[in-house]
TrEMBL record:
Residue span of region Disordered: 436-455
Keyword terms: Ammonia transport, Cell membrane, Membrane, Transmembrane, Transmembrane helix, Transport
Name used for this protein in its record: Ammonium transporter
Organism whose genome encodes this protein: Geodermatophilus dictyosporus
PROSITE patterns hit by this protein: AMMONIUM_TRANSP
Amino acid sequence: MDTGDTAWVLVSAALVLFMTPGLALFYGGMVRAKSVLNMMMMSFGALALISVLWVLYGYSMAFGDDVGGGLLGNPFEFFGLSSLIGTAGLEGAFAPDNLVFTVPSLAFVAFQGVFAILTVALISGAIADRARFGPWMVFAGVWATLVYFPVAHWVFAFDGAESETGGWIANGLLAIDFAGGTAVHVNAGAAGLALALVLGKRRGFGRDPMRPHNLPLVMIGAGILWFGWIGFNSGSALAANGQAAEVFVTTLAATGAATLGWLLTEKLRDGHATSLGAASGVVAGLVAITPACSSVTPLGAIAVGLVAGVLCALAVGLKYRLGYDDSLDVVGVHLIGGLWGTVAVGLFASAATTAGVDGLFYGGGVDQLWRQALGALAVLVYSFVLTLVIGGVIAKVMRFRIPEEDEVAGIDGVVHAETGYDLASLGGGGGSALAAGGQSRAEARGTNLTEGSRV
């Protein structure tokens, strides 16, 4: 055991855990005032539920010895994690009996567990304003069990790390996904699209304004996500070493470039660079660099981020053209950004980096490119199809979507018997705009913030 590596992994796990409340703020500010609590509760509900499932069998399904073609870990190998507890107690050092590389197995458990939590929470943005909390919690548990835990095994379980044999993408296909472009973002984005199709469109979608009610919350949430994402990416080195430092820099550069790319796209298209666009550009850049952060140079990271900002800014409007209601653009940002970042490894990877692989633009041909594309496609199809089935069954059995009259009245009051803002105590008429969903100065002038849910 290396104490420096262990400290870094534990700190990184805490940073990634902080991302889920950050996501709750990010998503919560983007919905209308009457839905803010329900939106945030879906993130906190995922945090609570997946924490328990991960300890019981999730970690074992993801990192247990493979039980069939690189598709699934043995769900009983580490059931309850009791077998991973134990220290030698040498001179008070409490050296662990079980290691993953140079860190205690339970530090690795904690780090990977918060990834599982965040991935489930990400999906909730696609169904904002219209999902009942109880069925959402059932969906979260079933989806994590049938989709995330197996996919995490495919992507993150390397032979010999925790168990002898791991997943097919990591060890057979040899696709590079350093911190979860496929397992987290393509996975959640495809699930968000499927679930949005199952629940259907919000009342008034494409006709009524559905403006973010609190842009400062969105900006705060984006800032927390950027901060926590350093643990997400750099922590995936599982050591306090040069690779962690390299990944920190590529993550920083790509995120900045994506933010600039999104703002420039807005300015050219709409005439305004908006705060919501800046926050969205941050997330787009973070998503895109996640799989590529160990394989691209800092200059390559800028290219990956810049394309991601432009691409995702354009992609959020696809839902109006294609007719699906992805409330908070999980598809436009996470699915599109995750696909781009994963494929970009095959284009921009450089053998000068710690990944040690050349992509197409660095003389490596298409060998890595096809591996990246196949891995991303496999996760997309698996997640989309399974989510359609899981969501469809829950919708039939439990009435996943709230009734239309409750959606109009406000899901917070109907489902949670609470409101996000006690407007009556403010007095006067100052709360009326907030009750209706709030307005920024740009909205008051009647201008479009961006396409998609940002209109």
